[in-house]
Fold each of these.
Amino acid sequence: MAFVTHYFTRALSSSSIRNAVIKHVTIIGGGLMGSGIAQVAASTGHSVVLVDTSQDILNKSTKSITGSLQRVVKKKFADKPEAGEEFVQKVMKNISTSTDAASVVQSTDLVLEAIVENLKVKQDLFSSLDKIAPEHTIFASNTSSIPISKIAVSTARLDRFGGLHFFNPVPMMKLVEVIQAPGTSQETFNTLLDFSKALGKHPVSCKDSPGFIVNRLLVPYLMEAVRLYERGHGSKEDIDVAMKLGAGYPMGPFELLDYVGLDTSKFIIDGWYEMDPENPLFSQSPLLNKLVSEGKLGKKTGEGFYKYK
Ligand SMILES: NC(=O)c1ccc[n+]([C@@H]2O[C@H](COP(=O)([O-])OP(=O)(O)OC[C@H]3O[C@@H](n4cnc5c(N)ncnc54)[C@H](O)[C@@H]3O)[C@@H](O)[C@H]2O)c1
């Protein structure tokens, strides 16, 4: 596969070192998040390669990106459908797919990982890519809950490793949490901030602490909603309505859990429980465990707390 290779641009004077400019992005994981990030990166003129384990999955990713772009275009180019179609084609031209991460990362500025929320699997991936990716390539994880430093230790590029935590649905959600692990260099951190802005997002700086900002507040709330339901304090429908009409939240906790994915939510709470089993905010839920074991993972599988057609 032929790629245009883009290397860092640096200022000549050391007193005004410019941050690296990310042009070519490799996104590993073409699921919910990876597809969304690919869409946004390609829409903002970046050259994107989306990597997953099979071509079948990648075909689904491409289909979902096209569908999402077409929804954007319907609104944005309501009066000019031809210009809209041109835009979709232009964006899709910026995206290619591959099942072979090793061959792709040889010419990339940023490897952004959005695979399963499992430390060992993420470490194995980064450890293998570290041996192949060029010196200048920055590695970043979109993990929701795993400390970036724990993933980064699998590589020899701690200074060029940070966190980029996007929110679902990526094309709609403005926030990106940019995580500076203890080893992340200031230049890498600044580059990731700049990259987030180049995607049209609003970055916030976060320390490498569990859940960063949003999930550290959100996940204990979601789990307490499940416990409330388990204790029979209310039906899931009533709890959802209560939080929407009483707290002004756009989605109820069960709707949000189904949207995020119950497996992803379980990974998060399991990891935090393991880290601090005495903390009641991190206690596990038998109901969540049961649904995940039955493959009811939320919207993406057609059933979670609710059923979807
Ligand atoms: N779902 C959310 O709302 C959300 C929000 C922010 C961050 N995240 C994080 O983003 C990551 C991905 O979450 P998701 O919801 O997109 O999951 P997902 O299950 O929709 O997608 C994961 C994809 O990764 C692929 N994959 C797994 N192992 C791989 C490997 N070794 N190489 C290449 N591809 C591989 C899978 O085939 C799948 O397509 C997780 O770390 C999650 O915590 C999720």
Amino acid sequence: MNQALEEAKKAALLGEVPIGAVLVYEGEIIARAHNLRETTQNATTHAELMVIQEACKKLGSWRLEQTTLYVTLEPCPMCAGAILQSRVPRVVYGARDIKAGCVDSLYHLLNDARFNHDCDVTEGILAEECGQILTDFFRALRERKKAEKKARKMAESSEPQ
Ligand SMILES: [Zn+2]
């Protein structure tokens, strides 16, 4: 999870919402990624989807058996779907996402007997750090927006009448 957090920090440096993921196979990290939605302007470039794609390429299989996916934030419906489709047997995540999480918060997509794949889920690993990096990111974003607004107002009021 520390490695996933490192990925999340890389995202923050790019001005991306800081979410990171790594995928482990036979005790080794075979894929790592961070959210790149703003950079790519592509809604599917979530960290989890990218590690799944990279791992499939490396293992030469769409079935990611005997792997563990570590991600800093509870997966969204899209990523939970990809986890089911790629048969990842184990997911470990940090913080819950009460607004979009589909593993424990809004839905339990990874543990729904109606699907043909059941995933072993562990939550709350380094949850505080994983959540804090998001809180800090959004706070800084709000402050930057506020400062920009203030600067705009000052520029407007100093314009000659
Ligand atoms: Zn996602």
